[in-house]
Design a protein that fits this description.
By secondary structure, the protein is mainly alpha-helical. It has one domain. The model has no long low-confidence stretch (mean pLDDT 87). Helix 1 runs antiparallel to helix 2. 79% of the residues lie in helices and 0% in strands. The radius of gyration is 19 Å and the shape is elongated.
Length: 80
């Protein structure tokens, strides 16, 4: 994972947390219509964060698999 990936994930998580706080505030205030709209935004942020996390994980696994495929000189990968 690169520094850019880490910053991107941190930023997306912070945005998601802020939207979640807004949702909770609206819900506590009994502003149900606005809370439902905010829930939609919050869930979109959650989806974005999960997709970005999966992308980073896929890239990390691809990098790991390339070093374990026998085409390079590093020592064999330890599994399990």
């Amino acid at each position: 994972m690169t520094a850019v990936d880490s910053l991107m994930l941190d930023a997306k998580q912070a945005i998601m947390e802020e939207h979640h706080r807004r949702f909770q505030t609206l819900q506590q205030e009994g502003r149900w219509q606005e809370a439902l709209q905010q829930m939609h935004v919050t869930l979109s942020c959650v989806t974005d964060l999960l997709n970005e996390s999966l992308r980073v994980l896929d890239e990390a696994l691809d990098g790991h698999n390339h070093t374990c495929d026998g085409s390079t000189a590093p020592p064999p990968c330890q599994h399990g």
